[in-house]
């Protein structure tokens, strides 16, 4: 396998570059492989770019201009692409994201349809939790396997300040309902920000351990709508570990990380008893691009080979233009073969994607 450099900046590609003949140097493989030896088996599917929170590190208080409804993939189009991915491309895991995916009308039916595919993938959902308490049982019955719920603070006033909504009780209710519905392990996604909520790391872990949840601390990434990300305000993985070490004993998790974005640590008490695990997703300070196994689909049918890509491949135009499943699969394969070795965040020439996280999907 060629060495994977993580310092290369993103480069512009022709929007239709992936639609031509398969590259001559690509092996004859049905899977989503790239020229650096990686294979994508995990599909991230954004169901909508809309959100009912206005988190300060994600979007402005007034929200954003949402995608026009005709641009968004229909349920049938979405399910067709997932079927192509699982039947023809070797995808075995699908995560539904947004925006806020629970705002997608028909989400329960979508999950039910995917659960009924010939090659049923494992399915998870990343949500802010608002509305999950009402839908958790239906989602589980439809075939959803588990959920990640965003929660950056345990304090009501701080939550309202961060999200610009006083809805923390709904998130606590979502955590309880997800557990009751069997959508486990329930994971909490937390973004720590300097001088905002970085003092809560031990408290969040203690809360999760008490209730049987698992925390995933995520370094703040340059994906905000206002392009105001500042490395100086980002709390690094090293700082998170140091904060937790004041209360817990951390040691590397016994199971291999493989392509998972989170680096896992066993959490032990002062006496050495295993209490659970905690994860840290250090996309900026400890890039894991060399093990990436993900491919991404936006709500309007654009294929992205990387979260930080500055180019996309339009699958919607193929869907609506009469392309066959095989033709779409071949375009997908070709796009993934051109995946860059790394996201380039730490290169001086790095440029933030035009789309914010809410429009890309987490």
The percent range for strand residues is 15-25%
Q: In angstroms, what is the radius of gyration?
A: 20 Å
H/E topology pattern: EEEHEHEHEHHEHEHEEEEEEHHH
Mean model confidence by pLDDT: 87
Strand order of the largest sheet: 9-10-11-8-7-6-5-4-3-12-13-14
Overall body shape = globular
| Helix content class | 25-40%
Structural class computed from helices and strand pairing: alpha/beta
CATH class: Alpha Beta
| CATH homology superfamily | Aldolase class I
**Which blocks of ≥5 consecutive residues have pLDDT under 50?**
1-19
- CATH domain topology: TIM Barrel
How many H/I helices? 10
List the helices and strands and how they pair.
Blueprint: E1 32-33, E2 39-40, E3 42-46, H1 75-88, E4 93-97, H2 107-115, E5 122-127, H3 132-142, E6 146-150, H4 156-163, H5 168-181, E7 187-191, H6 201-211, E8 214-218, H7 237-245, E9 249-252, E10 263-268, E11 274-281, E12 294-297, E13 302-304, E14 313-314, H8 316-320, H9 325-337, H10 357-360
Parallel strand pairs: 3-4, 3-12, 4-5, 5-6, 6-7, 7-8, 8-11
Antiparallel strand pairs: 1-2, 9-10, 10-11, 12-13, 13-14
Descriptive keywords:
362 residues, alpha/beta, TIM Barrel, twelve-stranded mixed β-sheet, 17% strand, globular
Describe the model.
- With 362 residues, the chain is of the alpha/beta class.
- The protein has a single domain (17-360), classed as Aldolase class I (TIM Barrel), CATH 3.20.20.70.
- It is built from ten helices and 14 strands.
- The strands form two sheets. It has a twelve-stranded mixed β-sheet.
- Helix 1 (75-88) packs across helix 9 (325-337), helix 2 (107-115) packs parallel to helix 3 and helix 3 (132-142) runs parallel beside helix 5 (168-181).
- Residues 1-19 have low confidence and may be disordered.
